[in-house]
Write a structure and sequence with these properties.
The structure is a single chain. The protein is globular. The chain has 11 helices and 5 strands. The longest helix is centred in the C-terminal third of the chain and has 27 residues. The protein is α/β, with parallel strands linked by helices and about 325 residues long. The chain starts with a helix and ends in a 31-residue tail after the last helix.
Length: about 325
């Protein structure tokens, strides 16, 4: 009876997820289906601007860090130009391919922030699977859903969202870091491009401790009272990464969150991470194009010796059968 109740609960949540998806304020065409099957756009919502990177009015740009390997990351004007350059090259070849920012990222990797900026730049729609699950459960936070329903139930909901989003195109989807644990999820995600936002656990621990470890159910569980939350977060992140690394390494592209110069402690700025991600995706797409072109560049040896492509008579065709042989 418990199993039947759980199955019914997941089915009801699945229906709720579909209801939430039907209300999103943007358009996403379903691949290889009638154009009538779309997520309708709310007329009151304005289309996102293409502008992504802007210079702050009070920014201190008196000098760049000497020896910075990517100096444009400290000059937002130059970074904006480079974002436009790579985007203009990528978009025609991307052809609406989904980008799974499950940036197979660990918690604290900034998946949602980078994902929104990337979607804005590519003129894609953005989904965060955690947010969709929360909406389907009357806006309960993920931590509460974990506490009330358990991790297995949460992962089932997550897989249902991934399944239902995968046929659509022009999407950037940010998933939870645990989405990589189910093989069926990979089957859907690899229909698009999967990116891993790879950050040092020390950096991720600082971020989640600052944001509030109680929002991260896998980190907050069994945390000793009065303990150093940053150290607790790092210890658990190290263990999670050890368990999941073999799955994360199946990602199509890997993008580092490492910062340089003034960003050494806090990690690379969001705009810089997005540029790195765009560049990695573009490199992957262009490599695929070159591979396809090489496969098309072939010759048939001895083709000049073929007089005709028409079917030739069999040498045995003129033999006569004797009376005792079956025709």
């Amino acid at each position: 009876m418990a199993g039947g109740a759980r199955a019914g609960q997941v089915q009801r949540s699945s229906a709720a997820l579909r209801s939430v998806a039907s209300q999103v304020p943007f358009t996403a065409h379903r691949a290889n289906f009638s154009s009538k099957r779309v997520l309708r756009q709310d007329a009151r919502v304005e289309a996102p601007s293409r502008v992504v990177v802007v210079r702050a009015e009070q920014a201190d740009l008196t000098g760049l860090t000497p020896g910075h390997p990517y100096p444009w990351e400290e000059d937002f004007d130059l970074l904006g130009d480079k974002v436009k350059e790579v985007t203009d090259q990528l978009l025609p070849d991307l052809r609406g391919c989904n980008i799974w920012l499950f940036q197979v990222g660990m918690m604290g990797s900034g998946k949602s922030t980078v994902g929104k900026m990337l979607a804005n730049t590519l003129k894609y729609a953005f989904f965060d699977t955690d947010s969709v699950i929360e909406l389907a459960h009357d806006k309960k936070p993920v931590s509460q859903i974990f506490a009330e329903e358990g991790q297995d139930y949460f992962r089932q909901c997550e897989s249902q969202i991934i399944k239902e989003l995968s046929p659509y195109r022009n999407l950037v989807i940010s998933t939870g870091g645990g989405a990589v644990l189910k093989p069926q999820n990979w089957g859907y995600m690899h229909l698009g491009i999967v990116a891993w936002l790879n950050g040092d656990t020390e950096l991720l621990a600082r971020r989640v401790a600052k944001d509030g470890i109680e929002k991260r159910p896998l980190l907050a569980a069994d945390a000793p009272e009065g303990a150093d939350m940053q150290q607790v977060a790092k210890t658990k992140l190290d263990a999670l990464l050890e368990d999941r690394r073999k799955y994360y390494e199946n990602a199509d592209v890997v993008v580092t969150l490492e910062g340089y110069g003034k960003d050494l402690e806090d990690g690379a700025p969001t705009a810089a991470v997005m540029y790195r991600l765009l560049t990695a995706i573009n490199d992957k797409v262009q490599a695929k194009k070159r591979e396809q072109a090489e496969r098309m560049n072939f010759t048939i040896e001895g083709a000049d010796q073929l007089k005709t492509m028409r079917t030739m008579d069999s040498p045995a065709g003129g033999l006569q059968l004797d009376g005792n042989q079956a025709p």
